Amino acid sequence: MRYSFILILVSAGVWAQQPQVPVPQVSLAGVQTPWNVRTIIDKLVVENDSFQPVFESIHPQEWVERGASSVYIQQLQQAEQQTRDVVTTSKMLAQKTDQLSLALDDYFRLEALDSTARSLEEGVRRYADRAAADKLAALIAHNFSAREQFRDYLASLAASQEQNFKVADQEAQRCRGIISREPASKTTKK
Questions:
Q1: Phi, psi torsion values for 144, nearest 5 degrees
Q2: d(CA 141, CA 186)
Q3: Where exactly are the structural domains of the chain?
Q4: How sure is the predictor about 5, in pLDDT bands with cuts at 50, 70 and 90?
Q5: What is the DSSP string of 45-75?
Q6: Which pTM does this prediction carry?
Q7: What value does the mean pLDDT of the chain take?
Q8: Does the domain spanning 40-160 belong to CATH 3.30.10?
Q9: 165 within 8 A of 100, measured Cβ to Cβ
Q10: Per-residue pLDDT tens for 71-118?
Q11: Do 146 and 44 contact (CB within 8 A), yes or no?
């Protein structure tokens, strides 16, 4: 404890003696506030919840009887699971809007859902009624704008965190340089 206190005092003295190196300021102009991010996430949750009734109206088992691939049945199950996963991860992200790994997970889940929904839309258009296909296509298109807003937030969050790590590394390097220039402490023998 006493050693830590002395080290802090010595470091403070060395800090005061060193010429101050300007630390670059991190510009967070592009990073959205947590409540704005929550608004985007809430919009994503609502839009992804709206896929469920459309998925319930799709019956690929009937398509298989008419010659369609049974893969559509699996895709429908996968799309329903992806929708639930997106909603779950989005709600988790709303609690921790600055967690990059969770934001990336959510974004990749959104992209996977988009891909699966587009494939299903092609099946609906080919083997079911056009109105259901148009409704699914409209949901996919509507979801695109919210996903783009989310992607922009994700890019600014990643850039901000990268800049923060860069500043922290520069500061650590500067402190290591200060410590390495300090004279060795003299120990006396008793």
A1: -60, -45
A2: 72
A3: 40-160
A4: very low
A5: HHHHHTHHHHHHT--HHHHHHTT--THHHHH
A6: 0.69
A7: 81
A8: no
A9: no
A10: 999 999 999 999 999 999 999 999 998 899 999 999 999 999 999 999
A11: yes
